[in-house]
Amino acid sequence: MENLTPIHTVGEFELKSRLLRAIETHRSSTILAAGDDAALIQPPVGQQLLLTTDQMVEGVHFDLTYFPLKHLGYKLVTHGISDLAGMNATPSHITVNFALSSKFTLEALDELVAGILYACDDYQVDWVGGDIAPSHSGLILNISAVGFAHQAEIITRKGAQKTDLLCITGDLGGAYAGLSILEREKRIFKEAPSVQPELDGFEYILQKQLRPKARTDFHTILKEWGITPSSMIDVSDSLASEIHQICKSNNVGARVYEERLPMEQIVIDTILDLNLEPTTIALNGGEDYELLFTVPLDQYDHIKNNPHLTIIGHITDAEDGVILESRNGNEHPIQALGWETNEHS
Amino acid sequence: MENLTPIHTVGEFELKSRLLRAIETHRSSTILAAGDDAALIQPPVGQQLLLTTDQMVEGVHFDLTYFPLKHLGYKLVTHGISDLAGMNATPSHITVNFALSSKFTLEALDELVAGILYACDDYQVDWVGGDIAPSHSGLILNISAVGFAHQAEIITRKGAQKTDLLCITGDLGGAYAGLSILEREKRIFKEAPSVQPELDGFEYILQKQLRPKARTDFHTILKEWGITPSSMIDVSDSLASEIHQICKSNNVGARVYEERLPMEQIVIDTILDLNLEPTTIALNGGEDYELLFTVPLDQYDHIKNNPHLTIIGHITDAEDGVILESRNGNEHPIQALGWETNEHS
Known about the structure:
The structure is a homodimer. The first copy, chain A, is of the alpha+beta class. Chain A has two domains: 7-153, CATH 3.30.1330.10; 165-333, PurM-like C-terminal domain (Phosphoribosyl-aminoimidazole Synthetase, Chain A, domain 2, Alpha-Beta Complex). Helix content of chain A is 32%, strand content 24%. Chain A is built from ten helices and 13 strands. A seven-stranded mixed beta sheet of chain A has the order 8-10-7-11-9-12-13, sandwiched between helices. In chain A, strand 1 (30-32) and strand 2 form a beta hairpin. In chain A, helix 2 packs parallel to helix 3 (106-123) and helix 4 crosses helix 5. Chain A is globular and about 65 Å long. The two termini of chain A are 29 Å apart. Mean pLDDT of chain A is 92; it is low at 340-345. Chains A and B meet through strand 2, strand 3, strand 4, strand 5 and strand 6 of A and strand 2, strand 3, strand 4, strand 5 and strand 6 of B.
């Protein structure tokens, strides 16, 4: 049995200095990282500042019984910076706040911090501030992220027009499929703790759930392929709700073709095994961290047969609604669901 | 009995749009406020970006049995931007994240939001983003704040030298005294719910606890009086711990004179009534949101008899430690205490 140190045996300042000690910076724009009242950052000349914030709550966004803390730290950063990728900006700096129950151990905190630092290294972002406070319940993580971009490069949710093509990066449903496998193994473990978890073959979907990547690489892909989306949004909630956001922001409708929704075979197989509908999960599973965007028709040559994206439909008039056309040609309105109905806990 | 609406009866998107609806902006630098993946801000030419983050946890930083939600919203903003005042920068933008239990009502959320907006108006900062998530315990609020300043104006914790004068704005211990009165009335109410709370005469200290102001005004005072501090820090934790931070950052010591600690008579009277030591509370009470700073001796003419500040001591060699000289001439080491020992709950 390991010798673990509950954080309540360590003081606030000791805890904070333990975090500060770990932080090294990657960016020349970082003048002063954590350690003063505020971080100091030199904005690149002529660029705009992008600022976003998000949170992850134990029992709502993650379950510590199967979520390794190092992965959680990585996923927190992905979650925080994905919004900036969704505006075609490069994230450069983050702050992270921890609310921890007193039973949380220093060793667990170190794992979490290691995951955050690993992600910072991967994404080349600097962790420049944060706070630790006691929590009377579980772990609550807050992240804010900053990035800079030239105004001409920034892509907002606004700009989609009728006949624009609706496109998505990567594939869908993997994070939900991974979560389902983890939940299944948790139930089995509760009933029969001696049974070894069966996770072989599920590596792809487990990674999608436990260590998803933000699409900060897509900025370069757009440049290389000469694509200028008319609008863009990151798919952190669910594809369905993000399509609704695009339509609402632009007062347009959308038609999505079921047969075009990109899904990996392992994702489809897993979802069918669970007696669920793959299309429902592609639309509402959530946490895919891909980018949804619209492209004017005259750029069709740049996006057809492009391995980095899939055309899943097109923009229509607002009166036509947000519609899924199924494989057999039927039309179904697409619903946007929030956390009140797809809470992960 | 009022008709209240628990938030679990409202969807995530309805909740978020309720927040977004309320937000108006004050600053021309705000290109895009809440409503997209990230906020867009135009950094003033030639200035540096300051970024800070903080959190307030129910049962740790506030007790909703006596803390009006509108005041809590105001105090959250004060708490978030005080760090920027502590670097002599003007806060310009904030983001706020809410984690709410499902029993929280829409009406309560509206009060909280009203307090945040009132503070935004007061401080002329723009609220440009945020998130709402369910919480399995109480209310947890996270704030990030952004400001801009010319490099030459920014004052960090680093720079204090031996013989510099140690100064503080405003007065000390008021927030703790106010908290003590509220805690006393809570106990009385529990024992005898029919007894009316006695809060007359305590307006000053209640305001210090419930609706403290960040010293964003001090930037202008420094300019007007021609004072250029060598180091500065905001006193959100406690005077004792902030003095230690200054000393640690500069590898110096400090000598503080008990008789110089600025305290209002109502604060002293309240603390004595509670059988506590006023000096202990001035040093360790916390939440005063004043600014602690050091000034080179050659600026003495600018700070003597200055109504906006009090000289409480001076910087010494590191070997001399961090010392309180009491009224009777005795020396006591000053201890820095974190939340492990002065938790408010």
